[in-house]
């Protein structure tokens, strides 16, 4: 009887070990990337208060996924350390009144609001993005600070990464 229990326990432990060893971590975010020194220095110079920095590569850009002034932010640089864009997640209350009014008066007003971002660029005015969903549709709505709808991008079933504009 004792021998049977021991064998059963040993088999259960082996099965548990096999189960956990069969799991693989395919999360691309865990890949270590080689970030050029010019890029890391550019981040420290531009945003010295950035914390919890995790680097990823998107196309030819190096992106610092970090916390900046209490906001989850992605800061985009090229390989030479040139800053291209900062995208920060915000709340509805952080969206300027003019943008809220424009959205509330738009054809998307009854859609489900998903996420909100503000985008900073070196040479272009700040933009606000409201992500909305309805049924099988998902859009990113790009607004100027004064509430002008600049672009509506259908991102359903696509990579919804917001890339820096080509300049």
UniProtKB/TrEMBL annotation:
The keyword Transferase does not apply. Gene3D superfamilies: 3.10.450.360. Residues 62-150 form the Putative beta-lactamase-inhibitor-like PepSY-like domain. The keyword Signal applies. It comes from the Bacteria. Residues 1-24 form the signal peptide. InterPro entries: PepSY-like. SUPFAM superfamilies: BT0923-like. This is Putative beta-lactamase-inhibitor-like PepSY-like domain-containing protein. It comes from Bacteroides cellulosilyticus CL02T12C19.
